[in-house]
Amino acid sequence: MKQIALLLTVTLLTNFSRAYIDTIYYDNGDVYMGAFADGMYDGYGVLIWANGDKYEGNWKANNQEGHGVLTWADGSYYDGAWVKGDQSGYGKYVWISGNVYEGGWKAGDRNGRGINTWPNGDKFDGEWKDDKMCGTGKYVWADGDSFVGQWADDNRNGKGTMIWTDGVKYYGDWVNSIREGKGTTEWPSGDKYVGHYHNDLKHGKGKYWWANGDFYSGEWFNDARTGKGKMKWPDGEKYKGDFRNGQCHGYGTLKKANGEKFKGRWEDNAFVN
After folding, report:
1. Mean pLDDT across the stretch 49-68?
2. How remote is the C-alpha of 64 from its chain's centroid?
3. Where in the chain is the domain with CATH 2.60.450.20?
4. Buried-exposed string 75-111: b where 16+ CB fall within 10 A, e elsewhere
5. 1: pLDDT confidence band, cut at 50, 70 and 90?
6. pLDDT digits (tens, 9 = 90+) for 91-117
7. 112, 88 Cβ separation under 8 angstroms
8. Which option is the CATH number for 70-271: 3.30.70.100, 3.40.140.10, 2.60.450.20, 3.40.50.300?
9. Could you give the CA distance from residue 42 to residue 7 in angstroms, rounded to a whole number?
10. 186, 179 in Cβ contact below 8 A?
11. Which residue in 6, 15, 98, 237 has its CB near the most CB atoms, within 10 A?
12. Which of 52, 56, 34, 53 is nearest to 43 (CA)?
């Protein structure tokens, strides 16, 4: 919002009407051409600042009010609604960088529903608050990755679904754009995980189904089967006990399909005693 310089002159037409059209040249180089009322910009007018910025549109009591276009000297511009000198309502802002936003505004910030397209090709269509992505929306990256869900402070926060270009799909909890909490991941291979995540990794309790029929249910640590768990194989073999880094390690029992049982201590998938 540009500070409006005080008018140097006021023209009175009658005792009852103070509306008129005039052109004012200021000592600092600013120029205003348009409507006045009671000595203030009021109605349609054009203000050109000495630095090259230009506003063309409606005014009320020296403030942009209604529809207008503000063009900055660098080529950026805003075309839309104004309230008391601030972008408020529906409008389009084009930055010199190539960034484009079209949608709701409030007090000069992106607010409400809107679409932002970045110069690199990324695009967000959703809700904004105080100039940040906040609420529900869809973000599509230039490389084809996409996220649909909840946002806060420009980050994926809450529930949402992420689909990567390699076909991997996750739906569940997010904190600051990281998988955190409960969620489900499905791979193109047919593998599937349902359980807890921490810091974008499988961590806590969870279940994993392999496409070949293998199945694990138990504890995870930093993306690996670690802790107490159960493993089942398609041939009927079962293991219940301790795991470390995806291997039977610690105390556990293995039951083979032929009825054999190995109960005791394991080290790196090998039965010790």
Report:
1. 98
2. 30
3. 70-271
4. eebbbbbbbebbbbbebbbbbeeeeebbbbbbeeebb
5. very low
6. 999 999 999 999 999 999 999 999 999
7. no
8. 2.60.450.20
9. 12
10. no
11. 237
12. 34
The tokens describing 203, both together, are: 């961590």
Q: Which residue has the higher pLDDT, 194 or 15?
A: 194
Which tokens hold the place of 198?
């921490």
Three state DSSP letters for the chain: CCCCCCCCCCCCCCCCCCEEEEEEECCCCCEEEEEEECCEEEEEEEEECCCCCEEEEEEECCEEEEEEEEECCCCCEEEEEEECCEEEEEEEEECCCCCEEEEEEECCEEEEEEEEECCCCCEEEEEEECCEEEEEEEEECCCCCEEEEEEECCEEEEEEEEECCCCCEEEEEEECCEEEEEEEEECCCCCEEEEEEECCEEEEEEEEECCCCCEEEEEEECCEEEEEEEEECCCCCEEEEEEECCEEEEEEEEECCCCCEEEEEEECCEECC
CB atoms within 10 A of CB 143: 11
φ, ψ dihedrals at 3, nearest 5° = -70, 130
Asked if 116 contacts 110 with a C-beta cutoff of 8 angstroms, the reply is yes
